[in-house]
Design a protein that fits this description.
The structure holds two protein chains of two kinds. Chain A has helices at 23-35, 88-96, 112-140, 143-154, 160-174, 178-192; strands spanning 14-18, 38-42, 55-59, 79-83, 101-104. Chain A is of the alpha/beta class. Chain A has two domains: 14-137, 3-Layer(aba) Sandwich (Rossmann fold); 142-200, Arc Repressor Mutant, subunit A (Orthogonal Bundle). Chain A has a five-stranded parallel sheet, with helices on both faces. In chain A, helix 4 (143-154) crosses helix 5 (160-174) and helix 4 (143-154) crosses helix 6 (178-192). The radius of gyration of chain A is 26 Å and the shape is elongated. The termini of chain A are far apart. Chain B has two domains: 3-117 and 260-332, Response regulator (Rossmann fold), CATH 3.40.50; 121-257 and 335-368, 3-Layer(aba) Sandwich (Rossmann fold). Chain B contains eleven helices and 14 strands. In chain B, the strands form three sheets. Chain B has a seven-stranded mixed sheet, sandwiched between helices. The radius of gyration of chain B is 21 Å and the shape is globular. The chains are: A alpha/beta, B alpha/beta. At the A-B interface, helix 1 of A face helix 5 of B. Chain A: Residues 126-186 form the ANTAR domain. Chain A: InterPro entries: AmiR_N, ANTAR, CheY-like_superfamily, Sig_transdc_resp-reg_antiterm, WH-like_DNA-bd_sf. Chain A: This is ANTAR domain-containing protein.
Chain lengths: 201, 377
């Protein structure tokens, strides 16, 4: 089993709680303070400082998109949904914000600590995944470049298969992705009219 | 005319951890008697006692029974974390409060519990901070198979890593298990620098006996060279361990000093071979603090407790202490003791360590010094 290592240090972290004054808010602030976070409540709007916070708790029952200084689903920090009413429309709205964890209301004496740890981990996983997808998309977008590079290489009298193998060995030699190698080959071809000037004599 | 206040008492008088339970019970009853006999206290406690007999499943029902069928709103009780977690829902439902007089593994701060003994920054962290520089950073972790052992060892793994050490082995025994042969075999093969013992009751006593035998066969395993270190071992269990305990280490908020005259023990009869312990002291302190808060006139509801903790200090066997209103954990001294027969010789004392149940303020460089860079060649 892969173990999340280390004592989770949450001391000094900052959490915004977007919820109207209520016993639930008091319970959350109490738990956050006991855990060692500095907790700031706000309603109805999340101030821009929240962008620099470590966590945001937001109310699903009365929440709306304009409360946030980011577009729905694009929170740059871990966010935790505070769910009271389980009306499908409200759940749908919470889902549109990609909450990293949830806490059911009424909030009692526990739940905040596990929500913090789960939110932090799923946010990190979400971010890692998004980075990976962006990288893969960029690589997919280079398909045409690869075709052009293979064509440039095979124009020197080798077949496609060997040209592709040559591109791969260039990528290995340069220690870059295949797509980057292809970009370089295409750039060289466009600039100098060929990949290997010595053959043009 | 004193105000009569019922008080719940929920300690097992039998079972695996009976010696600890008895120590807590003794401290509780001693403080009840002291409050009742005090002409200056307006409170007379009426004990409402229930005995779960060491069965974890009985704590919740008996706590409910106390809260439903008596006027008691406060319960002094619970030894294991398992039992505390069983009691909490009953407290939340009825608005009751548990005064918990035992060390625990931290990561909890329930409004309905007052944590009157040490949490990890008051036991495990200073204990490893003391032991690792003296004996080495490589530990073997053992414990009884439930939350205390699991969570305490989990934190220990991180602390040992921070001290650039390794956890060489980790083994759990079922509650009450006394066959420790395999554990001893592993320790003998692995040869750690210390053993962190989170076993409880008979398992712990059997382990000390077998380890003493091991040290007779192999001088790597003497207490001077490879000690057993514990966060929950006190005087109340030493008679069950006997001379096998000598030289090993434990951390706690209090170790009894027979040469000092302690006010809270004046007039107390001797208790066989068992000296007063931090369990007894903590249960005693719990009842006295409760009496002190009730003397102001209210019923010490959770909100009144919080206000009282914010504004008062309390005289206890641990000295004058505060209780953090935020987490309801006590500020306590941290002592490290070496076992000498039926008592402890104090080898380190730190006064007034504030509780940090979530280890939010843990700083490895403060505990273990800056990590030395390894030379890479």
């Amino acid at each position: 089993m892969k173990r999340a290592t280390r004592i989770p240090i949450l001391g000094g972290a900052k959490a915004f709680v977007l919820h109207r004054p209520h016993a639930n808010l008091t319970a959350i602030i109490r738990q956050l303070s006991a855990i060692g976070l500095s907790a700031i409540d706000c309603w109805p709007e999340l101030p821009p400082e929240a962008l620099g916070a470590d966590f945001v708790f937001f109310d699903v029952d009365l929440g709306f998109d304009e409360q946030f200084p980011w577009a729905p689903g694009e929170a740059p920090i871990p966010i935790i949904a505070l769910i009271g009413s389980e009306a499908p429309g409200r759940i749908e709205w919470a889902l549109s914000h990609n909450a990293d964890a949830q806490l059911l209301k009424p909030v009692g004496n526990s739940g905040v600590y596990s929500a913090l740890l789960i939110a932090r981990q799923s946010f990190a996983a979400r971010r890692r995944l998004a980075d990976e997808i962006a990288m893969l998309q960029a690589r997919v977008a280079e398909r045409q470049t690869i075709v052009r590079a293979v064509a440039a290489l095979s124009s020197q009298g080798i077949d496609d298969e060997r040209a592709y193998a040559q591109l791969r060995s260039l990528a290995m030699g340069w220690q870059v992705h295949l797509e980057e190698a292809a970009r370089r080959v295409v750039a060289m071809t466009e600039k100098e009219g060929g990949i290997d000037q010595s053959h043009r004599a | 005319m004193k105000r009569r206040v019922e008080i719940g008492i929920l300690y097992s008088r039998s079972g695996n951890y009976r010696l600890v339970s008895e120590a807590c019970h003794r401290g509780t009853m001693q403080a009840v008697a002291a409050v009742n006999a005090d002409p200056f206290s307006p409170i007379e406690f009426i004990p409402v006692e229930r005995d779960p007999e060491g069965n974890a499943d009985r704590y919740a029902t008996l706590a409910e029974d106390i809260l439903r069928n008596s006027g008691a709103r406060h319960i002094i009780g619970g030894v294991t974390s398992w039992s505390r977690k069983e009691i909490i829902p009953a407290l939340e439902k009825a608005g009751g409060t548990l005064w918990y007089a035992c060390p625990y593994e931290g990561f909890e701060a329930n409004e309905h519990v007052v944590y009157m003994h040490a949490c990890p920054n008051q036991h495990l962290v200073p204990l490893l901070g003391h032991v690792i520089p003296l004996y080495g950073p490589n530990g073997f972790l053992t414990g009884s198979n439930y939350i205390w052992g699991w969570e305490t060892n989990r934190v220990a793994r991180d602390l040992i890593a921070d001290a650039s050490g390794s956890v060489l082995g980790e083994r759990y025994l079922p509650l009450g298990e006394t066959d420790v042969a395999r554990l001893i075999h592993e320790i003998r093969a692995i040869r750690p620098n210390f053993i962190l013992n989170n076993l409880i009751g008979p398992s712990s006593y059997a382990f000390f006996q077998a380890y003493a035998e091991l040290s007779r066969q192999d001088d790597h395993f003497t207490p001077e060279h490879c000690p057993i270190i514990s966060c929950n071992l006190t005087e109340c269990e030493l008679p069950a361990i006997g001379s096998a305990g000598n030289g090993h280490l434990s951390a706690g908020p209090y170790f009894h000093d027979a040469s000092a005259k302690e006010v809270w023990l004046v007039g107390q009869p001797e208790n066989g071979g068992s000296r007063p312990s931090s369990f007894q002291a903590s249960a005693y302190a719990s009842v006295k603090i409760l009496a002190c808060i009730l003397a102001a006139g209210g019923d010490a509801s959770p909100s009144e407790l919080s206000a009282a903790f914010a504004s008062s200090s309390f005289n206890t066997p641990f000295g004058t202490i505060n209780i953090d209103p935020q987490t309801q954990h006590a500020t306590l001294p941290v002592q490290i003791g070496r076992i000498v027969d039926n008592g402890f010789e104090k080898v380190s004392i730190t006064r007034a360590v504030d509780p940090d149940p979530y280890l939010s303020r843990y700083d490895r460089s403060k505990v273990f010094g800056r990590r030395r860079l390894k030379v890479v060649s």
